[in-house]
Amino acid sequence: MNNKKAVVLGGGVLGTQIGLICAFHGYDTTFWLRSEGSVGRTQPKIDRYSALMLEDLAAAKPLIGNPMGRFMYPKGLIKDWDSMTPEKLDALYETGRKNMTEKVHIELDRAAAVKDAYIVIESMSEDPQAKIDVYTQFKDLLDPDTILVTNSSTLLPSMFAEYTGRPEKYLSLHFANTIWKNNTAEVMGHAGTGKEYYDEVVKFAADIGMVPLQLHKEQPGYILNSMLVPFLSAAQGLWANGVADPETIDKTWQLATGAPAGPFQILDIVGLETAYNINQMKPAAQQEGSLENRVGKLLKEKIDKGETGVNAGKGFYDYTKK
Ligand SMILES: NC(=O)c1ccc[n+]([C@@H]2O[C@H](COP(=O)([O-])OP(=O)(O)OC[C@H]3O[C@@H](n4cnc5c(N)ncnc54)[C@H](O)[C@@H]3O)[C@@H](O)[C@H]2O)c1
Fold first, then answer.
1. Is 270 in the pocket of ligand 1 (CB under 6 A)?
2. 43 CB under 6 A from ligand 1?
3. Closest ligand 1 atom, residue 150 Cα
4. CATH number of 224-311
5. pLDDT, tens digit, for every residue of 272-314?
6. Cross-strand pairs, 8
7. Which of 31, 65, 202, 271 counts the highest number of beta carbons within 10 A?
């Protein structure tokens, strides 16, 4: 086994960011994608997110020595801010840039992708059957020692453990969007996860610049989404009920709490497809005329127009205008 090989299954919004942060911190990183079409969709994301990460790293240089700097530097990229100097930052920039070019590979062949992997990080769409299918396909291809984690936001590892062929080495490692700045990693096992593998994943998370947040038991939505999902649903409910428009709802939240972003700005970053998938899992979403059903229809209308969020250039807001 290669202790420095990480594999990401899925090259979407989060998968791309996870793979890049692994490569940035020195892991030989392979994205497994299911088709040539996926390569065409993932490569631009790799280019875009690596450029954003390097831009934010370069922007941290003038913050060195500034007392506000500690609140603003990209925490997932710089492990020790207190000892940072302009020279060290230049060196980190160069190593990170090189790593994100030379240590990133895309592979369509399943066996070749996961060969010798230390860790495989599943970050595919939030679709339980698709996840089961993929775990089943990979089960016999993984090295016996490989640890398998899921980045699923809403599904529990106990739902999938039996399909992985390694329940004791399977758990959740849940990242937040814009991973290089918001460097939380929630670590959550299921009842059959081995303590030693849980601890390994905690170490791995810290090694790739994350702050591991340890959950003692399974919790749908972990810590973050137990708070965030109801918050975003409440905002979408206000919108779907015609109470106020997204801009006003965002402004209310930002002005009243001092938060840097409102719920619809967050939804644009998360991506409307993910928001739609989460909404559709609520039983009420299938009941014609219910609030959840109307939220689903409104989100679907935007998705069908290609307005899926920041990545598409347009979501609730237009990102093509300066
Ligand atoms: N977007 C977020 O803010 C966020 C945050 C934390 C965790 N997550 C979780 O990360 C995972 C991925 O989310 P995302 O936002 O990157 O989604 P996304 O829609 O951007 O990407 C999903 C990826 O999965 C691939 N995929 C879908 N079905 C597949 C299949 N059957 N076989 C192989 N590949 C398949 C797609 O090609 C795509 O590359 C989800 O489980 C989500 O809950 C998302």
1. yes
2. no
3. 41
4. 1.10.1040.10
5. 999 999 899 899 999 999 999 999 999 999 999 999 999 899 9
6. 31, 121
7. 31
